[in-house]
Write a structure and sequence with these properties.
By secondary structure, the protein is an alpha/beta fold. It contains 10 helices and 8 strands. Bound molecules: phosphoenolpyruvate.
């Protein structure tokens, strides 16, 4: 099955209004490569300005609350992010799983909140180095997937990002064979959980993707795109990754 590639950036807690100028070059690259999807998850404070600046580019959030509204000081709901201009959100990023102690159950509820709001979800899973060294990577990741996958997950609103924790922001990446093996295991689990519809759900790889390693990573078996942190902060670093996904 052919799946449209998706290259999504994650600015994390970086950037300010001046940095939004980077979106101009990213939006131009997205327009130049209409066969793939390009998206940027901004800090919540920049979503509205980013979406206004580049209306054709898919701007998203990095997290939303699982509830639609209520007494949750400091949080934003999916509908709030949507009203600001977000079309999607990342959920279950390993930094939130580790720092905010987010569980699979919570990640699943957040993805379902996005669906209720008519938004797309990128659900992250990934093993730690200890788990990989112990030979547990596949078991851990497929278990995370089972626990975090939203009810009714379908390709038109849900994508999965495999992000080995030890590869995020470290400059280290798994081998292409390891990525392909894990994506194959995730695909098989998706088929178990979702049925045939699981074949259409996009699987992104994330963890130290750069212009240099993107061509090989993005064309590994069952890799349908990338989730990119550090290299998404500037158009100069991100645009070659977009081009690699588009195959040129
Ligand atoms: C991420 O934060 O999802 C990520 C993959 O970061 P980096 O590309 O910087 O490793």
């Amino acid at each position: 099955m052919t799946r449209r590639k998706l290259v999504a950036g994650n600015w994390k807690m970086n950037g300010d209004r001046a940095a939004l100028a980077e979106l101009d070059g990213i939006a131009a690259a997205a327009a130049a490569h209409p066969a793939i999807d390009v998206a940027i998850a901004l800090p919540a404070t920049l979503i509205a300005a980013g979406a206004e600046r580049v209306p054709a580019l898919a701007i998203g959030a990095q997290d939303v609350h699982a509830a639609d509204k209520g007494a949750f000081t400091g949080c934003i709901s999916a509908n709030m992010a949507k009203e600001a201009g977000a079309r999607f959100s990342i959920v279950g990023h390993s930094e939130r799983r580790a720092d905010q102690k987010e569980s699979d159950v919570l990640v699943k509820a957040k993805a379902e909140a996005l669906h209720r709001a008519g938004m797309q979800a990128i659900v992250c899973v990934g093993e730690t180095l200890e788990q990989r060294d112990a030979g547990e990577a596949e078991r851990v990741v497929t278990q995370q997937l089972e626990g975090s996958l939203p009810d009714g997950a379908a390709a038109d609103w849900c994508a999965i990002a495999y992000e080995p924790v030890w590869a995020i922001g470290t400059g280290r990446t798994p081998t292409i064979e390891d990525v392909a093996a894990m994506h194959g295991a995730i695909r098989a689990k998706l088929r178990d959980l979702v049925g045939e519809g699981g074949d259409a759900i996009r699987l992104l790889y994330g963890g130290s993707v750069t212009a240099e390693n993107a061509p090989a990573l993005l064309h590994a078996s069952d890799v349908d795109g990338a989730l990119v942190g550090g290299a998404s902060l500037t158009a100069a670093k991100f645009v070659p990754i977009v081009a690699a996904a588009a195959g040129n």
